Amino acid sequence: MSSTIVVALDTRDRLAAKSIVAELAPHNPWFKVGKALFVSKGTAIVEELMENGANIFLDLKFHDIPNTVAEAARAAADIGVRMLNVHCLGGRKMMETTINSMADLSSRPLVVGVTILTSMNQGDLDEVGVREPLQEEVLRLARLARDSGLDGVVCSPQETELIKSELGSDFLTVTPGIRPAWSATDDQSRITTPADAARMGTDYMVIGRPIIKHQRPLEAYESIQKEIQSAVQ
Ligand SMILES: O=C(O)c1cc(=O)[nH]c(=O)n1[C@@H]1O[C@H](COP(=O)(O)O)[C@@H](O)[C@H]1O
């Protein structure tokens, strides 16, 4: 199955976000509302985008005690977002309580766990006291997420094949750190091209600046889509 593109709407500007959504919506990507847009425009922008039929990934990376995260996740589910994320480092009880908080819903959002941020490399991990090889740490957190009932993880596309082979192809991989050859790396560290991410079997590719900061976002989007399609043919 081909990967779904999730366009990260990392802007505080409501009109800028709406104009990108209007331009790209005919191609049916998902859209990600993260901290910048949510803190400035709140649930109103999420509801507004959903009214126009957009599938929303609410990326607030919840990381707190189990009850607090479960309540916040349930509130997100009640808005009707299709995906949300928590930090795997919040631990098993936090992830299990979050999933249990949605047990009465006939359909709930996908819940995915952030493993190690794609902006971090082995040196960054060492600095915060995690001495494991980075890929082993990602796999450990992914296994914990799966055992806690989550639907998948957020990781680098460099780790997709490892996670799929160890935890099963149905366990979702949501991968930021996507950089076409023509775009800047910015603050990302563990990156691949869209073609490589597609070949490795990533389910959802989260892409922000290469599209939204491009002079012509639609052209950037179409070029990425073409790259993905020719990689998996
Ligand atoms: O959870 C995320 O979405 C996320 C996790 C991660 O490890 N790395 C990461 O970049 N992200 C998000 O993915 C998006 C990537 O955006 P660009 O780097 O502009 O393509 C940003 O909105 C990040 O907040």
TrEMBL record:
Top EC class of this enzyme: lyase
GO biological process: 'de novo' pyrimidine nucleobase biosynthetic process; 'de novo' UMP biosynthetic process
Annotated active site: D59 (for ompdecase activity), K61 (proton donor), K61 (for ompdecase activity), D64 (for ompdecase activity)
InterPro entries: Aldolase_TIM, OMPdecase, OMPdecase_AS, OMPdecase_bac, OMPdeCOase_dom, RibuloseP-bd_barrel
Catalysis: reaction(s): orotidine 5'-phosphate + H(+) = UMP + CO2
EC numbers for this chain: 4.1.1.23
Record keywords: Decarboxylase, Lyase, Pyrimidine biosynthesis
Domain Orotidine 5'-phosphate decarboxylase: 4-224
Domain of life: Bacteria
Pathway(s) the chain acts in: Pyrimidine metabolism; UMP biosynthesis via de novo pathway; UMP from orotate: step 2/2
GO CC entries: cytosol
Molecular-function GO terms, alphabetical: orotidine-5'-phosphate decarboxylase activity
Chain positions recorded as substrate binding sites: 10, 32, 59-68, 118, 179, 188, 208-209
NCBIfam families in the cross-refs: PRK00230.1, pyrF
Subunit and interaction comment: Homodimer.
Purpose: Catalyzes the decarboxylation of orotidine 5'-monophosphate (OMP) to uridine 5'-monophosphate (UMP).
Family assignment from sequence similarity: Belongs to the OMP decarboxylase family. Type 1 subfamily.
PANTHER family (UniProt xref): OROTIDINE 5'-PHOSPHATE DECARBOXYLASE
Designated name of the protein: Orotidine 5'-phosphate decarboxylase
Organism: Desulfurispira natronophila
Encoding gene (name): pyrF
